[in-house]
Amino acid sequence: MLRLVLLEASLERVPASIARHPAVVSDARRRKKKPTEIILDDSKHHAAMKNLPNREKRGRPDIVHACLLAALDSELNQAGQLEIFIHTIGGEIIRVSGETRIPRNYNRFVGLMEDLFRKRVIEADGVRLLEILDSSLESIILQPTVLMREGGEAFRPDARTVCIGAFPHGDFDPSTLEVLERCNARQASIGNRHYTSLYVTYKVICSYEVIL
C-alpha cells in the first residue's frame, strides 16, 4: 500500500489581501461568487499576485488536477493499493478517496475544489470522496517515508509514504522539511535534473505497480 502525499500543493482560495484587485473582482463577478471563495489561479489572477509571498509557488491548481487524474486512473488505485492526500500550501490536509472521480475538465475541477473549501467535505451515496481533515502533515506520514527532491538518492519503491511537491517553482518551506526530518524521511530522485510534479507522480506510481 502506497500513501501518496502531494506536498505544499498550489491549491488555495484567493487571499483576502488581494481580494479587491480588479482581476480577482472581475473573475468572481463573472462566476457569481465572492472573491475569497474562488481558487487562486495564476492564469486569471496574475496581475493581482505580483506581491504575494512565495508568489512563484502559488496559483497553479492545474498541477494538482493533473497529478490526481494520474493517480486515480492508475492500476495501483484500481487495485486498492493507493491512498492519496493533499497537503496544501496553506497547510490544509485533504484526503482523496480512491473512489473519487475527479472532473477531467479543469474548470469543473476548480469548481469542485471551491465547493470543498466551503463545505469541507464532498460526499456521494454516503461515501466521503473528498474531505479537509483536522490533521497535521506529521499525522498522515507513515514510515518509512521518501521525499522526492532533486539531488536525492536513487528512488526505489520501498516506502509506505512518498511525498511529491505539487508546486511550479521554488523549494519546500523549512517548516515542511523539519516535519519530514522528524519523520526520518529520506530524500530520493528519479534522475539528475528537474522534473515536473506530474512526471514524478507517474514514475513513482509505475514503480509501485511493477511490484503489485
UniProtKB/TrEMBL annotation:
Positions with a binding annotation for S-adenosyl-L-methionine: 165, 170, 190-195
Natural source organism: Archaeoglobus veneficus (strain DSM 11195 / SNP6)
UniProt KW keywords: Methyltransferase, Ribosome biogenesis, RNA-binding, rRNA processing, rRNA-binding, S-adenosyl-L-methionine, Transferase
Organism taxonomic ancestry: Archaea, Methanobacteriati, Methanobacteriota, Archaeoglobi, Archaeoglobales
Protein name: Ribosomal RNA small subunit methyltransferase Nep1
Reactions it catalyzes: a pseudouridine in rRNA + S-adenosyl-L-methionine = an N(1)-methylpseudouridine in rRNA + S-adenosyl-L-homocysteine + H(+)
Record GO biological process: rRNA base methylation
Domain of life: Archaea
Annotated GO MF terms: rRNA (pseudouridine) methyltransferase activity; rRNA binding
Annotated site location: Interaction with substrate rRNA: 60, 101, 104, 108
UniProt cross-references to InterPro entries, sorted A to Z: Alpha/beta_knot_MTases, Rbsml_bgen_MeTrfase_EMG1/NEP1, Ribosome_NEP1_arc, tRNA_m1G_MTases_N
Family under the similarity heading: Belongs to the class IV-like SAM-binding methyltransferase superfamily. RNA methyltransferase NEP1 family.
Protein role: Methyltransferase involved in ribosomal biogenesis. Specifically catalyzes the N1-methylation of the pseudouridine corresponding to position 914 in M.jannaschii 16S rRNA.
HAMAP family the UniProt entry points to: NEP1
Subunit relationships: Homodimer.
Known EC number: 2.1.1.-
Site (Stabilizes Arg-xx): 62
